[in-house]
User: What shape does this take?
Amino acid sequence: MFDGRFRAEAERTLKPVGAQLKRSGITADQLTVLGIVMAGAASVAIANGALRAGLLLLALTALPDVLDGAVAKASGTASPRGAFFDSVADRFTDALLLLGVAWYLTNENPGRIALLPMAILGASMLISYERAKAEALGYQAKGGLMERAERMIALAIGLLFNNLLIPILWVMLVLTCITAGQRFVKVWRQASAEVPPRAPTRERTRTRRQSADRRLARSTTRQVRRRSQLRPPR
Assistant: This one.
């Protein structure tokens, strides 16, 4: 939902901030690394039951995450390498945060409830994979009820009101699974509407080139014979 409705506006708002950070010498990769460090600190705080500190660190984790793209664009360093690094960092920070929540639940609520954050992590990895695979095939798979931004907001609410943490985690799991289904259906419809033409294989291309060469050779031979017949005797 955030990607479809608010990302463009957020990028326009953050563009001057990115330009200012670029002038200060801060790079997009440095911000991405800072986000990972903040997520690790938030995970440790949450695991040890310091949920308010974890909430603060979670907010600090989000800042580099939204600013690294603005800095990359302002400095003209946006590249596939940077996009890959940012995407991997997002998945890694998601895992750190949910592992911290699972550790906290293990201490506070003995039993199987600690598997709940792990289920959310698995579902979130699935929707990320769906988008990556769809874009690799030339389709579009953005959108859904519970994307990464919505998951972080929901987790922040759960950390703020710790008595609501488990119900919020259940809501996150349900909505994340629904999002995975939405993306699957979206890509399935795109792929079913138009089957892309199969690219010619190397062997087929070589055969076509050889056939074209033979036709050209036969045509050239006929032209030479015709000219020799029309040439007057010496």
